[in-house]
Amino acid sequence: MIHEILRWAASLGTMGAGLVLAARVRPRTTGWAFVVLTGASIIWIAIGYLTAEYALMVQNVVVTLINLFGIYRWLIWKGKV
Asked: Is residue 52 part of a domain?
């Protein structure tokens, strides 16, 4: 049961944040979409571990790193674009 709830939370977070990124909204909103994606990818890592789906887990470790770069780029870094 908890696995299914986690899967749905991660799926909905990924889809919602992906829609925000595709819509090319304001930069700050884009940054927060990366925060949501980071949370979703961390949930996917947990699901991969709990279900022994190691490819899913490794994929989302890399996706988490990419999302952390997105957070830095859109919410922290103040340089010129």
From this structure: yes
Q: Residue 69's CB: how many other CB atoms inside 10 A?
A: 12
3-state secondary structure of 19: helix
Instruction: For 31-60, write each residue's pLDDT tens digit.
Output: 999 999 999 999 999 999 999 999 999 999
pTM comes to 0.89
81 within a domain of the structure (yes/no): no
Domains in the chain, number: 1
Can you tell me the distance from the alpha carbon of 17 to that of 22, in angstroms, rounded to the nearest whole number?
9
Residue 43 lies in a domain: yes
Sign of the dihedral through C-alpha 52, 56, 62, 64: negative
Domain span at residue 31 reads: 2-76
Rg of the chain (C-alpha set): 13
